[in-house]
Write a structure and sequence with these properties.
This protein has 317 residues and is mainly α. Helix content is 82%, strand content 0%. The protein has one domain. The longest helix has 31 residues, at 153-183. The radius of gyration is 19 Å and the shape is globular.
């Protein structure tokens, strides 16, 4: 990994985080839409965007092998559909607070799992940045943790189990995606992102049909135009925005970061998504962070800086 790759990889990871943070805005703007509608709507839009972008990129897509398409399908199934299904189910079972606390552990979990296989950095040099990130996540989510402790044991146990599956799915996805890209350096990140979108399209379409046919959901969908709920215009606009920016551009930026960085570093940089989501959330509410949340944000930033510097010293050495 050259210094140029390190700088470019961090920049791409930052861009991906800024894009992915947008997915936390849609539920706030559409509070009357259930999580499955937002999840399948987002990935249906991702697939349609990829279908449009496939036309100018058809030559590179035609060069993909059968193994490439099989891998894109597996990545889409696990990293997109299953991840959001289990996350949505976890939110419905126990609420957003518990899910946010568990999902917040992703940067540390991914970095530890990736370094366990890569050995990209000695554990003693990786631990300080992971410790700061973990402390920052704990501070940012301290109010959510208080709500978790006050909740009912049964519902929270089920929610924790379902969200844990979501964490496992999205721990597998970036590690597997990075390995595939690093083993196939000639693979275009743009074509690879479009291929994942095309693989997601039939899965999301089946999920959307199943959602409409699910008992109780059909009446909700029928309340708006073309089965799109009570606010079809805003829903369509936000889904297309998430499909283009959060899904296609975010995945493209993440794939380019994965081509340049060890996964044990890029995993830590998922913190950018948390920071972006916090910024967008405070902007939406029209208020700033309190002292504890501000301290948590400072620890998250410090952890990222420390992690990048540790790999920078490794690169220089």
């Amino acid at each position: 990994m050259s210094p140029r790759d390190l700088f470019a990889g961090v920049a791409y990871a930052l861009a991906a985080g800024l894009m992915w943070g947008l997915v936390f805005v849609a539920p706030a703007l559409l509070p009357d839409y259930p999580p499955p509608a937002l999840a399948f709507g987002r990935y249906l839009a991702f697939g349609l965007v990829a279908l449009l972008l496939a036309l100018p990129d058809r030559a590179r897509l035609a060069a993909l092998t059968r193994a490439d398409w099989a891998e894109a399908f597996k990545l889409s199934l696990v990293g997109n559909i299953l991840y959001y299904l289990f996350l949505s189910a976890g939110i419905q079972a126990a609420g957003v607070p518990l899910a946010s606390v568990i999902i917040g552990a992703l940067p540390v979990v991914i970095a530890v799992c990736a370094n366990w296989h890569e050995r990209a950095l000695p554990w003693a040099r990786l631990a300080p940045s992971l410790g700061l990130i973990a402390a920052g996540i704990a501070l940012v989510n301290r109010s959510e943790m208080a709500r978790v402790e006050a909740g009912g044991a049964g519902a929270y146990s089920l929610g924790a189990a379902l969200t844990g599956v979501a964490v496992a799915a999205w721990t597998w996805y970036p590690i597997r995606n990075a390995r595939w890209l690093q083993r196939h350096p000639a693979l275009s990140a743009t074509a690879w992102t479009t291929a994942q979108g095309l693989a997601t399209l039939p899965l999301a379409a089946l999920g959307w049909i199943g959602y409409l046919l699910w008992p109780g959901e059909g009446a909700f969908a029928a309340s708006g135009w073309a089965g799109l709920g009570p606010r079809p215009g805003l829903f369509l606009l936000l889904m297309l925005a998430m499909g283009l920016f959060a899904s296609w551009l975010g995945t493209l930026a993440w794939s380019r970061a994965s081509q340049r960085l060890p996964t044990s570093l890029s995993g830590q940089l998922i913190v950018f998504e948390t920071l972006a989501a916090l910024a967008y959330g405070f902007w939406h509410r029209g208020q700033g962070p309190d002292l504890g949340t501000g301290a948590g944000i400072a620890l998250l930033v410090a952890g990222v800086v420390l992690g990048v510097r540790a790999f920078q010293r490794q690169t220089t050495a």
